[in-house]
Design brief:
The protein is α+β, with helices and mostly antiparallel strands and about 150 residues long. It is about 40% helix and about 30% strand.
Protein backbone atom coordinates (compact mmCIF):
# COMPACT_ATOMS: atom_id res chain seq x y z
CA UNK A 1 0.00 0.00 0.00
CA UNK A 2 1.44 3.32 -1.06
CA UNK A 3 0.26 6.90 -1.23
CA UNK A 4 1.36 10.09 -2.85
CA UNK A 5 2.32 12.29 0.12
CA UNK A 6 0.03 15.16 -0.89
CA UNK A 7 -2.88 12.75 -1.38
CA UNK A 8 -2.14 11.28 2.04
CA UNK A 9 -2.17 14.75 3.64
CA UNK A 10 -5.37 15.67 1.79
CA UNK A 11 -7.08 12.43 2.88
CA UNK A 12 -6.14 12.92 6.54
CA UNK A 13 -7.23 16.57 6.40
CA UNK A 14 -10.58 15.52 4.89
CA UNK A 15 -10.86 12.84 7.62
CA UNK A 16 -10.82 10.04 5.05
CA UNK A 17 -9.38 7.79 7.73
CA UNK A 18 -11.22 4.74 9.01
CA UNK A 19 -11.70 5.23 12.76
CA UNK A 20 -12.29 2.44 15.22
CA UNK A 21 -11.94 1.72 18.90
CA UNK A 22 -12.13 -1.00 21.46
CA UNK A 23 -11.72 -1.17 25.20
CA UNK A 24 -9.76 -3.59 27.34
CA UNK A 25 -9.09 -4.16 31.01
CA UNK A 26 -5.65 -2.77 31.87
CA UNK A 27 -4.37 -6.06 33.30
CA UNK A 28 -5.59 -7.96 30.21
CA UNK A 29 -4.69 -5.58 27.38
CA UNK A 30 -2.58 -8.11 25.52
CA UNK A 31 -5.73 -10.21 24.96
CA UNK A 32 -7.00 -7.30 22.83
CA UNK A 33 -4.06 -7.39 20.39
CA UNK A 34 -5.82 -9.73 17.95
CA UNK A 35 -9.16 -7.85 17.69
CA UNK A 36 -7.30 -4.52 17.69
CA UNK A 37 -5.13 -5.61 14.78
CA UNK A 38 -8.14 -7.18 13.01
CA UNK A 39 -9.91 -3.79 12.93
CA UNK A 40 -6.85 -2.23 11.32
CA UNK A 41 -6.44 -5.09 8.83
CA UNK A 42 -10.09 -4.80 7.77
CA UNK A 43 -9.52 -1.13 6.88
CA UNK A 44 -6.20 -1.49 5.07
CA UNK A 45 -7.49 -4.45 3.04
CA UNK A 46 -9.91 -1.90 1.57
CA UNK A 47 -6.95 0.43 0.82
CA UNK A 48 -8.13 2.77 3.60
CA UNK A 49 -5.98 4.76 6.00
CA UNK A 50 -6.81 3.83 9.58
CA UNK A 51 -6.62 4.96 13.19
CA UNK A 52 -7.74 2.33 15.70
CA UNK A 53 -7.73 3.23 19.40
CA UNK A 54 -7.44 0.83 22.32
CA UNK A 55 -8.65 2.42 25.55
CA UNK A 56 -8.40 1.30 29.12
CA UNK A 57 -9.07 2.68 32.57
CA UNK A 58 -5.84 3.39 34.39
CA UNK A 59 -4.31 6.09 36.56
CA UNK A 60 -2.34 7.80 35.13
CA UNK A 61 -4.39 7.69 31.94
CA UNK A 62 -2.92 5.90 28.94
CA UNK A 63 -4.23 5.23 25.46
CA UNK A 64 -2.94 3.17 22.58
CA UNK A 65 -3.44 3.62 18.84
CA UNK A 66 -2.61 1.84 15.65
CA UNK A 67 -2.22 4.35 12.84
CA UNK A 68 -1.28 4.17 9.20
CA UNK A 69 1.08 6.88 8.00
CA UNK A 70 3.93 7.70 5.65
CA UNK A 71 6.34 8.45 8.54
CA UNK A 72 6.58 7.83 12.28
CA UNK A 73 4.57 10.83 13.43
CA UNK A 74 1.00 10.64 14.72
CA UNK A 75 -1.72 11.75 12.32
CA UNK A 76 -2.41 14.59 14.76
CA UNK A 77 0.98 16.01 13.72
CA UNK A 78 -0.04 16.43 10.10
CA UNK A 79 1.68 19.82 9.77
CA UNK A 80 5.02 18.27 10.78
CA UNK A 81 4.45 15.36 8.40
CA UNK A 82 4.04 17.90 5.60
CA UNK A 83 7.23 19.70 6.60
CA UNK A 84 9.49 16.64 6.57
CA UNK A 85 8.18 14.93 3.43
CA UNK A 86 8.10 15.86 -0.25
CA UNK A 87 4.52 16.36 -1.48
CA UNK A 88 5.19 14.79 -4.89
CA UNK A 89 6.80 11.63 -3.49
CA UNK A 90 4.97 8.32 -3.33
CA UNK A 91 5.75 6.50 -0.09
CA UNK A 92 4.81 3.18 1.46
CA UNK A 93 2.16 3.32 4.16
CA UNK A 94 3.36 1.87 7.45
CA UNK A 95 1.53 0.84 10.60
CA UNK A 96 2.62 2.60 13.79
CA UNK A 97 1.93 1.60 17.39
CA UNK A 98 1.40 4.62 19.61
CA UNK A 99 1.14 4.88 23.39
CA UNK A 100 0.17 8.22 24.93
CA UNK A 101 0.29 9.09 28.61
CA UNK A 102 1.46 12.00 30.72
CA UNK A 103 3.47 9.43 32.66
CA UNK A 104 5.69 8.65 29.66
CA UNK A 105 8.86 10.71 29.38
CA UNK A 106 7.82 12.61 26.25
CA UNK A 107 4.12 11.86 26.68
CA UNK A 108 4.30 9.64 23.61
CA UNK A 109 5.86 6.41 22.43
CA UNK A 110 5.69 5.49 18.75
CA UNK A 111 7.12 2.40 17.10
CA UNK A 112 6.72 0.90 13.65
CA UNK A 113 4.84 -2.39 13.42
CA UNK A 114 5.74 -2.71 9.74
CA UNK A 115 4.57 -1.70 6.32
CA UNK A 116 0.92 -2.34 5.56
CA UNK A 117 2.04 -4.89 2.96
CA UNK A 118 4.17 -6.76 5.52
CA UNK A 119 1.41 -6.72 8.14
CA UNK A 120 -1.09 -8.12 5.63
CA UNK A 121 1.39 -10.74 4.41
CA UNK A 122 2.14 -12.07 7.92
CA UNK A 123 -0.64 -11.18 10.31
CA UNK A 124 0.42 -13.81 12.86
CA UNK A 125 3.85 -12.21 13.19
CA UNK A 126 2.31 -8.72 13.33
CA UNK A 127 0.01 -9.88 16.13
CA UNK A 128 2.99 -11.30 18.07
CA UNK A 129 4.96 -8.06 17.63
CA UNK A 130 1.92 -6.01 18.68
CA UNK A 131 1.31 -8.20 21.74
CA UNK A 132 4.96 -7.94 22.79
CA UNK A 133 4.95 -4.16 22.29
CA UNK A 134 1.72 -3.72 24.24
CA UNK A 135 3.08 -5.84 27.09
CA UNK A 136 6.28 -3.77 27.15
CA UNK A 137 4.29 -0.51 27.32
CA UNK A 138 2.21 -1.81 30.24
CA UNK A 139 5.39 -2.96 32.01
CA UNK A 140 7.01 0.45 31.41
CA UNK A 141 3.99 2.30 32.80
CA UNK A 142 3.88 -0.04 35.81
CA UNK A 143 7.56 0.69 36.52
CA UNK A 144 7.02 4.45 36.23
CA UNK A 145 4.02 4.43 38.55
CA UNK A 146 5.80 2.13 41.04
CA UNK A 147 8.65 4.64 41.32
CA UNK A 148 6.18 7.49 41.86
CA UNK A 149 4.30 5.67 44.66
Amino acid sequence: MQRNVQTFIDDVTAEKVTQGSLTGAYDQLTTQAQPWLAKLVAAVKQDQLAQITLTTTHEPAISFRLETSVINLPLANLTEIGKVTVADDTMPINVYMIAESEALQSGLRIDELGSVDDVLADQANAEKLLTDWLSAQVDRLDQITAVED
